[in-house]
Design goal:
It contains ten helices and 13 strands. It is of the alpha/beta class and about 300 residues long. It has two domains: about 170 residues, Rossmann fold (3-Layer(aba) Sandwich); about 110 residues, Alpha-Beta Complex (UDP-galactose 4-epimerase, domain 1), CATH 3.90.25. The strands form four sheets. It has a six-stranded parallel sheet with strand order 3-2-1-4-5-6, sandwiched between helices. Strands 8-10-12 form a three-stranded mixed sheet. A two-stranded parallel sheet has the order 7-11. Strand 2, helix 2 and strand 3 form a beta-alpha-beta unit. Helix 4 packs parallel to helix 5 and helix 7 crosses helix 10. It is globular, with a radius of gyration of 20 Å.
């Protein structure tokens, strides 16, 4: 059973990278594919020598068979309640029936244990799954990576390249925000999947930057330092988000409606890691803030 790792969500960007990182570490990788998954991405996994199993997640016997002989399951599934709560629970129950000892849920985000209910809809779904999962006889390990560093390329208010501005909130100009690249998250997760002694929570950040740090970096990379813009208090921001959410109920059926994107920005300033577990697995090369920003400037 040693080193057989099953990856759910393997056709996604993070899941595919986790599969390849596991391969480089000598693991036998089994990719669990849903019937509606992109066939071209499935074929790419096959060509890479990864075992692929197309499984209907509502079919418990298929799931149990897919989990047979597996030492750890990594879920890189993305979606709303149907996926994060219901599908992951189906997978976890199959893991328990098949005797899989370990499960890494799709918790690749800010440390939601520090955030109150209602701060972030997508994080709340992960809390619901966690409450269910901790009642199952499978050992959990969550990897909290903060925000994915690629969001800094999207012109978000935190780093608005069009307006050449950097947002912050009252008393938070020096607040360190955790960022990790997809590649680094995948490499660390692969190590954790192969680590039978991995703890319940692992917290990582490829780099940590404050709005003040971004001012200095923007000057170095873009030639002109961007201007800090105070957005008011986090409490006011939270109230604004709730008003936008109430006004757009259709967003409840969308993965990233405008108000959910606002919630992610709120989370960046509301929670960060007190300690990092980066050093748990030596030899990983972490992408830094300057590398990330330079890649967005190309």
């Amino acid at each position: 059973m040693k080193n057989i790792i099953l990856v759910a969500g393997a056709t996604g960007s993070l899941g595919e990278k986790i599969c390849r990182e596991l391969q480089t570490r000598g693991a036998n990788v089994r990719a669990l594919i849903r019937p509606e998954s992109n066939p071209e991405k499935t074929e790419a996994l096959k060509e890479a020598g990864i075992e692929t199993l197309v499984v209907d997640f509502s079919n418990s016997s298929q799931l149990v068979a897919a989990c047979s002989g597996v030492s750890c399951i990594v879920s890189a599934l993305a979606g709303l309640k149907e996926t994060i709560v219901e599908v992951q629970t189906q997978l976890l129950d199959a893991a328990a029936e098949a005797g899989v000892p370990r499960f890494i849920p799709s918790d690749f985000c800010t440390d939601y244990t520090q955030l109150p209910e209602g701060s972030n809809r997508n994080f709340d779904l992960r809390k619901i799954f966690t409450a269910l999962a901790e009642k199952r006889p499978v050992r959990l390990t969550s990897v909290f990576n903060g925000a994915f560093s690629y969001v800094l390329r999207f012109g978000i208010p935190l780093l608005n390249t069009k307006e050449q501005s950097i947002a912050f909130y009252d008393g938070k100009a020096d607040w360190k925000i955790d960022f990790t690249s997809l590649e680094d998250t995948a490499a660390f997760t692969a190590e954790a999947a192969l680590d039978d002694t991995a703890p319940r929570y692992l917290r990582i950040a490829g780099f940590r930057v404050s709005p003040e740090d971004l001012v200095r970096l923007s000057g170095k990379i873009f030639g002109t330092p961007f201007q800090l813009q105070n957005q008011g208090s986090l409490e006011q921001f939270s109230e604004t988000i709730q008003k936008v959410r109430t006004a757009h109920p259709e967003g409840e059926q969308e993965l990233y409606p405008a108000w959910q994107q606002m919630q992610y920005l709120y989370s960046m300033f509301a929670a960060h890691h007190d300690q990092l577990d980066n050093a748990r697995y030596p030899g990983l090369n972490w992408q830094n803030a300057e590398e990330t920003l330079r890649s967005s400037h190309i």
